[in-house]
Amino acid sequence: MRTIDVWRGVLASTLIALGSASAADQPLAERPWMDSGRSADQRAATLLQSMSQDEKLALLFGYFSSDAPWKNYKKPQEGLVQSAGFIGGNARLGIPALTETDAGIGVASQPGEQARPRTALPSNLATAATWDAELAYSGGRMIGDEARLSGFNVLLAGGIDLARDPRNGRNFEYGGEDPWLAASMVAAQVRGIQSNHILSTLKHYAFNDQETNRTTLDARIDERSARMSDLLAFEFAIEQSSPGAIMCAYNRVNGVYSCESGWLLNQVLKTDWGYGGFVMSDWGGVHSTIPAANAGLDQESGYPFDVSPYFADALREAVDDGHVAQSRFDDMTARILRSMFANGLFDDPVSAGDIDFAGHALVTRADAEGSLVLLKNARRILPLGRDIKSIAVIGSHADAGVLSGGGSSQVYATGDLTFTNPHNERRRMIYFPSSPLKALAARSGAHLAYDEGTDIKAAVKLAARSDVVLVFAHQWSAEGWDVTLNLDDDQDALIAAVARANSKVIVILETGGPVLMPWIDQVAAIVEAWFPGTSGGEAIARVLTGEVNPSGRLPLTFPRSSAQLPRPMLDGYPEQAHARTVVDYTIEGAAVGYKWFDRQHLTPLFPFGYGLSYSRFVPSDLSATVQGNRVSVRFMLKNAGPLPGKTVAQVYVSPVQPAASGWEAPKRLGGFRKLDLMAGQSADVTLSIDARLLAAYDSSAGNWSIAEGDYNVLLSRDAATPVAVTTVHLVREILPLHP
Ligand code: GLC
To answer: In whole angstroms, what is the distance from residue 549 CA to residue 645 CA?
Structure first.
């Protein structure tokens, strides 16, 4: 303890003796860890000294905070109903309980009668499609506010597993296929969440890139490829957001479960990257006591999801017997306390309060509007003209609301609508009551007629007598399952039939990720709306009518077929219980998404970064300078009109001598900027490129290195469309592993 602390303690106890100590000083005297002038590490170390072994152990073991009759389990009394997790507090020491809720789209609820209605952002993949870190931040701040006012101080958000496979059922919860984009967007949301003095996770660490057999599959990947792909996304996001906790994943990596992988946890996360927070398991992701604790797992989550309470008495015994060192046991506790101090959980405890749902509806609407991607707009049929007399609105419950993704991230909304998935009783599809039809009717003078789209003949009849046809098509996806690339329930047939009856068909897709579009040449326009959240219907209507200029860009590649993918057949699909699936990620290595398509010389349906606008944006004056191998890029961008709007300037880097570079693919995204410009307005943009995006990881040397040579800097509309190029020369450089 520092001298100042001793004197502070003496002073406080003197004041107590004099009877003049105020309540505020008293805790400081008895609880020196409450001195907010000291660092989180110092406060954690001080508090640790006052804790018994059992009090430390209590922090390392978390409970599921919902009843689980199928396991004959009742949630802890103090846990918040139908929520994800609870770790008891300590009144003697003033340690707050950890109340944990899912997740990155908003305050989720476990299914049941007492699901709490909260505001849902669009899917995290939609937020990534905005390429707008400010929007991501404001969305995170909003859901963190709702978490706090609901009594939660842990939001299990920060999903950032790369979209290695477009059929991953949880891609909607993540940030897409590129490490820099995913990290920039997910980190911004985590910063927004933690600005509420609660802590967020980043998850699922690592390579939980498919849902099929997620709890048993073994993801195989070499270290070099791992560091330059999924792990790089986590590394960037940790640096940019300092998440309170990392959630280790269900799956194995190179034969070892993530939550007991010394390489992933002790070596990469805590040693190489210097991560000072704590590692919590996924719910049911722990498979041992001693190996897991010694590999770097700090907290077991969600009892009774694991087959055994590994971090309860068994851990106490392991410490008593010396199989887990006391120093490691103390480190586990200290890391949790440190994250709690660092994120304000002690100094600014959460308490229930009123939520500004009206204000939050505008936050999620702005996110949704920025996420919609205009994929096709033949004859500039969009925005909808005011001269249109009749509009047919067909399919996907567009009269009632918009689709949301399923699983632990499921947010419930007041008045939401549940539909049974025709393929599986257990898959309940929830629509938020934000009707595109009603939102359009409020903005258009046309006569709107709705058809649910289940009877193709009826839909065709309506289409034939309408000026314009809006077909809403959906593909539901959820945690625990993967999807195919096909729209289900004959929606392709519906779209094709309607397109034969009317040449002005606009398809609006509500999907968790990419889908095939066999009707693409028969329709006039296509909008990817993702799962657009609580205000999604309004966002769709505002874009279709031109109130908002679409500015979303694809955060992942839309393939032409599954034959283009590294794994045409998803490993283990359809799922067989307890199958020991091996997923070989060495096929593509770090060449995920557009990098795979570049390396294999494949042309996708729509490339990464693709998206159209109602306006034309003209780049000019591209230049790049190098200061000590740090590349700075500058260019002008003009909105040539006719409408005000946003666009995304994308900068890719490509070695002129690819073989010498050691890169995984011909090019990488180096940086981007979302710009909001009035018609006729220009912006002078400067951005810099992180050195690791110019380097390759060398497993034998255990570091990153930049190869000497020339590198093209490409200012681009998307991954397939460079519009200006300049070249820089870099010299060989070894980069530090722990920046
Ligand atoms: C789930 C998910 C994880 C979630 C946790 C708590 O199985 O994998 O993302 O945060 O359990 O619900």
So the answer is: 5
Q: Which positions ≥6 away from 687 have C-beta within 8 Å? A: 632, 633, 651, 671, 672, 673
Provide the pLDDT for residue 629.
85
Regarding whether 333 and 379 lie in a shared domain, the answer is: no
- Predicted confidence (pLDDT) at residue 390 exceeds the cutoff of 70: yes
The answer as to whether 492 is a domain residue is yes
735 membership: H or E segment, kind and range = strand 733-735
In a domain, 586, yes or no: no
78 and 214 part of one domain: yes
Task: Report whether the peptide linkage leading into residue 122 is cis, meaning its omega lies within 30 degrees of zero.
Answer: no
Give bridge partners of residue 527 from the DSSP assignment: 374, 508
Q: Check residue 264 and report its DSSP letter.
A: I
CA of 698 to the centre of ligand 1 (A): 34
Dump the DSSP string for 266-318. Answer: IIIIIIIS---SEEEE-TT----SHHHHHHT--BEEEETSSSS-TTTHHHHHH
Output the CA–CA distances (angstroms, integers) from residue 387 to 204, 434, 542, in the order listed. Answer: 50, 25, 17
Q: Are 314 and 463 contained in the same domain?
A: no
Percent of the chain with pLDDT over 90: 91
For residue 11, pLDDT over 80 is answered with no
- Is the CB–ligand 1 distance for residue 306 below 6 Å? no
DSSP H/E element including 461: helix 456-464
Q: Give the pairing of strands 373-377 and 402-403.
A: unpaired
Question: Tokens 């599809």 — which residue?
Answer: 429
CB 126 within 8 A of CB 532: yes
How do residues 131-172 score in pLDDT, each as one tens digit? 999 999 999 999 999 999 999 999 999 999 999 999 999 999
Which protein residue's CA is at the shortest distance from atom 8 of ligand 1?
A: 282
Q: Compute the distance between CA of residue 72 and CA of residue 388 in angstroms, rounded to an integer.
A: 59
Whether residue 31 is found in the same domain as residue 130: yes
In a domain, 348, yes or no: no
Give yes or no: residues 111 and 195 share one domain.
Answer: yes
Q: Are residues 159 and 249 in the same domain?
A: yes
Tell me: do 398 and 261 sit in the same domain. Answer: no
- Nearest-CA residue for ligand 1 atom 7 is 283
| Total domains present in the chain | 3
**Is the minimum distance from the CB of 160 to ligand 1 under 6 angstroms?**
no
Q: How far is the CA of 327 from the centre of ligand 1 (A)?
A: 29
- Of 342, 365, 383, the last residue of a domain is 342
DSSP character for 80? P
Q: Please check whether residues 391 and 303 belong to one and the same domain.
A: no
Closest CA to 639 of 630, 648, 631: 648
Identify the domain boundary among 342, 365, 388: 342
CATH of the domain at 173: 3.20.20.300
Instruction: Check pocket membership of 102 for ligand 1, CB cut-off 6 A.
Output: yes
Query: Is 697 domain-assigned?
Result: yes
- Please tell me the distance between residue 465's alpha carbon and the centre of ligand 1 in angstroms: 48
- pLDDT for 552-575, tens place per residue? 999 999 999 999 999 999 988 777
Q: Which range of residues forms the domain containing residue 668?
A: 615-735
Q: Write down the pTM of the prediction.
A: 0.95
Q: What's the gap in Å between 285 CA and the centre of ligand 1?
A: 10
Q: How far apart are CA 726 and CA 715, in angstroms?
A: 9
Q: How confident is the model at residue 27 (pLDDT cuts 50, 70, 90)?
A: low
